[in-house]
Specification:
Layout (H helix, E strand, L loop, with lengths): L1 E2 L9 E6 L3 E7 L4 E7 L15 H17 L5 E6 L3 H12 L7 E6 L5 H19 L6
Parallel strand pairs: 2-5, 5-6
Antiparallel strand pairs: 1-4, 2-3, 3-4
Length: 140
Amino acid sequence: MAVAVLSGMSHRHSALWIDHNEAKIFHVGEEDFEKTVVAAPHHHVKRRDGHNADSAHDAAEQHFYHAAAEALRESDEILVVGPATAKLAFIKHVHKHDHGLEPKIVGVETVDHPTDGQLVKYVRSYFRKVDMMRGTVPMQ
């Protein structure tokens, strides 16, 4: 499912909020944002040792991470956030499979389950601070 809140926006700053159920990709501008949602596979089979019992599940999970990576492909800078370990699994996937995204990831933060508005506000604040530290505050 994809939800577009605006069109024609540059993808300078983006955020990925991810858990084991879905990935929400936000391309954030100063006043607007665009959102895309990617659903995760829903058959979590775990062995007692914590590894996935089903290699098909592993493939489906990698497809999920790749779909999220594809949605971020046009982004200049990416903040990866989420409540638990899916954000780290996504980072591992990028390191192994989607190398072009690696230099674009500027941060990984733990963020619980915010509303879209709360997350967009957080992302704007985060990138404003990054831009100020670099001395590259965007033109308004």
